[in-house]
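Table 4 source record.
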Amino acid sequence: MVIVNESFARRNFPNEDPVGRYLKMGAGQPPLGATNRWGQSEWSQVVGVVSDVKSLHPQPEAVPEIYVPYWQWPMQNPTLLLRATGDPAAWMAAIRREAKAMIPNLPPPEIQSMDELISGTLAQPRLQTGLLGLFGLLALLLAAVGLYGVVALSVSQRTRELGIRIALGAQPRHMLALVLSQGVRLVSLGIGVGLLAALALTRVMRSLLYGVAPTDTLTLAGVAGLLLAVALLACWIPARRAARVDPLVALRHE
């Protein structure tokens, strides 16, 4: 006799009542009523259907499951779930004492609190997220340094032009806006391409996301704003240098 969950019933017995039906676990299709070498029936009758239980995973999902009585199918490594109030350490010590008293030669059971179990389950996603964050920070730093270099080189090459503009009456704020707009145009183009790539790649990285939708508008807007702020900061120093160009020096510049 076995009990199945709703996911198993929907997959294997669609549009019909699974209670009373027979199923066999493992390979082979012996005739109904056949027994194994221990005299147990090869086939099990479904006697009930229970609700789904989601797996302990950052993205929990219900999977088809079969529940078999322990004495009908003994497990080598059974798992016991205990809900209790009070100090978890005291309960762990009591369970170890009881297990030792029942079977002295049995190795002590491995006991974990739910917090420890969840922490272990999330260890790999946290590591992956940390590495992605580190690589993202390095990429942001390299992008900022590269953008600064491009704008600084542009200002150096346009020193004569900038000096002529100032000599003809351009104000420092105008020169500042001119250089900043050049950097902002480059960054805006990069952000647009990056958003399109992000919308495509986040579907592939869906398994690494927890509690965040792959197309979360707030996250995408925040990242775009951060990139724009870093770009403005990277362009600020060359822009200030352009605003302070001396027209006499600029006109003698080769």
